[in-house]
């Protein structure tokens, strides 16, 4: 292994956590000059970073470019917020004065610190939510599928509620009505099957001869 290649520092993401220190906020104002000090109390802050080394040496952050390793950099207020309520902080791995790779992005919104998700995590989360909704829709649709040999596939999303109690005479009338409707439906299905068979016999003459021979 080439010893000239610096090892990539270990890094752990935590997109579900947030940090807010009301005690610190009660003692100091939060602005672009103090936000990095506020961030230093969060669980994402690496105590071995170059910012911490410069702080112990009482040296300004301008010396970060001359060092190598982990550093935290506050991004400029491009939106020109007044007063500023959103701060963006980059965690970088500096390998040279001109090269620093971004490892993570954090933001401070209304005095609460969060880690911003990367593109892969964001897309994965959105795709999982879409997949869940699509599966739920397919299950709802499959519950309404009905199939009959004579009528084919159909949709039926009606729900049968619990019937109200009825007196014996009404119950008998309802039973006779259901029986009549069932018989009528059987007749309609039989007529439809006969119609289909007659149509096939007309289209295929050999079937007509076969039916005539067996009928005689």
From TrEMBL:
UniProt keyword annotation of Transcription present: yes
- What's an example GO cellular component term for this entry? mediator complex
Q: Where in the cell is it found?
A: Nucleus
Question: What InterPro entries is this protein classified in?
Answer: Mediator_Med6, Mediator_Med6_sf
Record key words, sorted: Activator, Nucleus, Transcription, Transcription regulation
A Gene Ontology biological process annotation? regulation of transcription by RNA polymerase II
A Pfam match is: Med6
Q: Name one GO molecular function term.
A: transcription coregulator activity
What's this chain's function?
Component of the Mediator complex, a coactivator involved in the regulated transcription of nearly all RNA polymerase II-dependent genes. Mediator functions as a bridge to convey information from gene-specific regulatory proteins to the basal RNA polymerase II transcription machinery. Mediator is recruited to promoters by direct interactions with regulatory proteins and serves as a scaffold for the assembly of a functional preinitiation complex with RNA polymerase II and the general transcription factors.
Q: Kindly state the subunit structure of this protein.
A: Component of the Mediator complex.
Which family would the database say this protein is a member of? Belongs to the Mediator complex subunit 6 family.
**Protein's name in the database:** Mediator of RNA polymerase II transcription subunit 6
């Amino acid at each position: 292994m080439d010893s000239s290649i610096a090892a990539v520092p270990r890094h752990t993401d935590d997109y579900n956590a947030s940090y807010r220190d009301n005690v610190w906020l009660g003692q100091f104002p939060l602005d672009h000059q103090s936000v990095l000090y506020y961030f230093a109390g969060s669980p994402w802050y690496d105590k071995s970073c170059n910012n911490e080394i410069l702080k112990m040496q009482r040296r300004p952050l301008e010396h970060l470019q001359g060092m190598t390793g982990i550093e935290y950099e506050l991004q400029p207020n491009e939106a020109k917020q007044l007063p500023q309520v959103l701060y963006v902080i980059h965690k970088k791995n500096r390998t040279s004065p001109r090269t620093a790779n971004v490892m993570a992005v954090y933001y401070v919104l209304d005095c609460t610190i969060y880690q911003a998700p990367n593109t892969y995590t964001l897309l994965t989360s959105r795709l999982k939510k879409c997949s869940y909704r699509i599966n739920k829709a397919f299950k709802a649709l499959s519950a309404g599928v009905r199939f009959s040999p004579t009528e084919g596939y159909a949709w039926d999303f009606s729900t049968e509620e619990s019937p109200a109690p009825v007196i014996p005479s009404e119950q008998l009338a309802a039973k006779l009505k259901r029986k009549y409707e069932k018989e009528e439906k059987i007749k309609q299905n039989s007529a439809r099957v006969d119609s289909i068979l007659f149509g096939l016999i007309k289209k295929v003459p050999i079937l007509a001869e076969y039916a005539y021979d067996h009928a005689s």
